Structure prediction request, 149 residues.
Amino acid sequence: MSRLPVETIDEAIGVSTFHEPKARQIREIARRIAVEHGGKLPCRNDVLLSFSGVGPKCANLVLGIGCGEARIGVDVHVHRVTNRWGYVQETTPEKTMAALEEKLPRRYWVEINRLLVPFGKHVCTGKLPRCSTCPVLDMCRQVGVGKHR
Ligand code: SF4
Prediction:
């Protein structure tokens, strides 16, 4: 990866949002891993957070999926959905992450991101969530939901 031209990485992740800056960040991270860590990504939160473009959510995804640790990756989708459910009552993804760490059984920590990101993109969307056909409508408190489909 560190030897690939940025354009090649960009082409490979072209369907992602902001793929151009992401391609540059991926290449730079790969270069640092090669030079500073012998080509092996360290399972260390402090190292992961030192990479440009890597925040707490991304670091937790790596530690959870790649390193097998119990971690919760909370992005805008996980934050929005769990707050609409009324499962947590927090104002930022970071606070939601802390609240979920207190409340959510550990066996769900890694998979909650994989489950709720597509759910948040396609069902419990930011604007006009699809509540009328939502499979968890009868379990949801619909906190803060105004107009919906
Ligand atoms: S019922 Fe509406 S607010 Fe609740 S999870 Fe489903 S789509 Fe989201």
The longest helix spans residues 19-36.
